[in-house]
Structures are given as structure tokens and as C-alpha cells.
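User: Batch of two.

Assistant: Item 1 of 2:
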Amino acid sequence: VIFRHIHAKNEAKIMNQQRSREVGFKTYMTKYFPNCKILELDIDVELSPNQVDNLLDNFFIQHPNVKYGLTFNSKVGIFGEYIERRKRTDFHLLGYDLLDKNVQCLKNGSVHFLIAQQPFTQGFCSIDGLCKHLIFLPLSV
């Protein structure tokens, strides 16, 4: 299932990056897993936490065999916290960004994968690792 946390009053607020990720994912799945049925669930940002829980409860009652879900934005923690409250251990969740809530859900096991986009940190660590390997490691031998 693809979970979308949207502004129902203004559907245009789905970011281009989020839309691109979704299109890429669906293209990949269609090509390599054509028998996989992808469900979608839009959740309005205006809903209260209880309303979100009710919506998700109803979704899982209607689709009890769904075991994998993802978001293409940083709101995976909302769904991870729901998974924790419902004590679901049979559901695997993927999302984006190392926000505190998302990382806590990852540590708790309700989110299984987080894709972090930190180009500065990733670039720094790459150069640092390369430097240590090529320059500093030979000096210590």
C-alpha cells in the first residue's frame, strides 16, 4: 500500500518529488512484479489522530493480507506510530527522512527502512572515508 499524507483541499500540494518517486516505484513494480497489486490510501492532514486510526483500522479490515507499505515523504512516523499502537508485527513499512519520530519508529521496529537524503553529510563521509583509506591508512602500516 502507498500511504499519502495529503492536503485534501488542495491536491496540487503533492510535491513533484513525491509524485516522481511514486511514478518511478510504480514503473519498477509493473516491470519486475507485474502481479503485485498496489493499493493507495490518502490521509488528509486535517484529520485528528483518532480519525487517522479509524481510517487505517478500516483499511486493514478491508485488506487484511496487506503486509507492506510505504510513503514517499517524511510522514512515515505517523503510520509507524499507528503500527506500534496496534502492536502489529506482521507489517513492513518504508519511508523517507531521518526525522526524530521516524528514527524512533525505526528503532522500535514499526518502520523497517528509512531513506535519508543528506547530500552534504553523505558527501563529507564519502570523502572522509576515501581520505582515510588512501592517505591515512597507508601511513599507519
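Item 2 of 2:
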Amino acid sequence: MSYLSSKINGLIIELGTHHGTGTLALSTNKNNTIISYDIKSVFGLSSTPENVELRIGNILNNTDQLNQLLEAELIFMDTAHEGDFEQSIFDHLKNNNYNKMLLLDDIFWSHGMIKFWENIDITKYDITDVGHGDPNDTHGPAGNVPGTGLVDF
């Protein structure tokens, strides 16, 4: 994620901050602005980098924030991994002619995520081997390597 951040100069939106490790990786390029969302405050960051804004809440409940996704050079989604939320975000992006990149964590985590990933009908890349591909890491409910996907809108 640090590498991707180094290739971007603009807005990056992260959906699913959790403890903030992805946030920190994305914030390494100080030319980027990172907006990171989580539904509750579980941030593990002892201090927030100056180019990061943390927001609490479900982005689907705020039209202005949802539409801000369309301005992002990169969207990183690491949420509940059930497929429904991910599908809602994907549909919003596709229906509004988003034309950048969506990075998805844990594309093989659950049966819902597998179905969501398989049904993406635009250019996508399984980058598990460079993202989340430890063959010994099969901790998801589907018993698979969690996986990483990149969708090129």
C-alpha cells in the first residue's frame, strides 16, 4: 500500500480503518490526503499523521461523503468482508462513472466476498501474491488465503 501511495498525488479514501495499519501505509506519501472511515472508534493510532483525517460512521449514510469517493485517486476497502457493503460501494462507483482504482482486502475471506469478487464485471486483478497471499494464512471462514484484489475502473 505504501508503494501504491507513492504513485499517487491526491485523495485516498480508506473504508475500514480498524487499528490504522493500512492508514499509516497509505499516509507515507505526504502529497496525499487520506480520509479513513470506520463505523466505530477502534483506531490504534497513538498519533495521526498530518495528512490523515479519521471519520467515524457509515459512509453509506452520508450522500456528500459517499459522493466524495468519486474524487479519490484510490479507494482502499477493508471492511466486514461479507460482500454486501462492498457491493453497495462498487455499484455506487460504477453507476457514477468512477474512473480510478479500488483496492479490496480479503477477497476470498468469506463466501459473500468470493461471490462479490467473482461478479465484478470490469477489469480486475487478483494481486494476492503481492498483497495478502501467505499460503499459511487461511484464517477466514471460507478457509482460504484472504486475498487482495485491484479493480481498475
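The chain has a mean pLDDT of 89.
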